[in-house]
Amino acid sequence: MRFLGGPLDGRVDVRAARHGDPLPTVTHVHLHDGPKVVHRYDLDAVGDGAAVYRLRPPVRRPVADEAATG
User: Fold this and answer.
1) Which long-range contacts (CB under 8 A, 24 or more apart) does 4-12 make?
2) What is the pLDDT of residues 17-30, one digit of tens each?
3) What are phi and psi for residue 7, nearest 5 degrees?
4) Average pLDDT in the 48-68 region?
5) What pTM, to 2 d.p., does this model score?
6) How far apart are CA 63 and CA 60, in angstroms?
7) What's the burial of 53, exposed, middle or buried (CB within 10 Å: 0-12/13-18/19+)?
8) What is the pLDDT of residue 68?
9) Which of 18, 23, 58, 68 is most buried, by CB atoms within 10 Å?
10) In the prediction, which pLDDT does 61 show?
């Protein structure tokens, strides 16, 4: 399986059949001096037994309007 996008872009992992089916989503957490950064990759079948993990687009959370809340 190949990872597309984000910090794992281009990484290839070979998963033995004995480990079962690949997970539908893989979470990659990067810890460093700042806040933790989380990336999620969703499994996408691309052909005969082949699959890639594509970076999930970030979720945009609306920012509360200070005038409306205060």
Assistant:
1) 4/52, 4/53, 4/54, 4/55, 5/41, 5/54, 5/55, 6/39, 6/41, 6/55, 7/39, 8/39, 8/41, 8/53, 9/55
2) 788 888 899 999 98
3) -70, -20
4) 78
5) 0.73
6) 9
7) buried
8) 55
9) 23
10) 74
Question: Integer distance in angstroms from the first to the last C-alpha of the chain?
Answer: 49
Q: In angstroms, rounded to a whole number, what is the distance separating the alpha carbons of residues 3 and 17?
A: 19
Residue with tokens 């984000």: 6
Domains of the chain, residue spans: 2-59
- Indicate if the alpha-carbon torsion angle 16, 19, 20, 23 is positive or negative: negative
Distances (CA, A) of 53 to 7, 22, 34: 12, 10, 26
Pair of tokens at residue 9: 């872009």
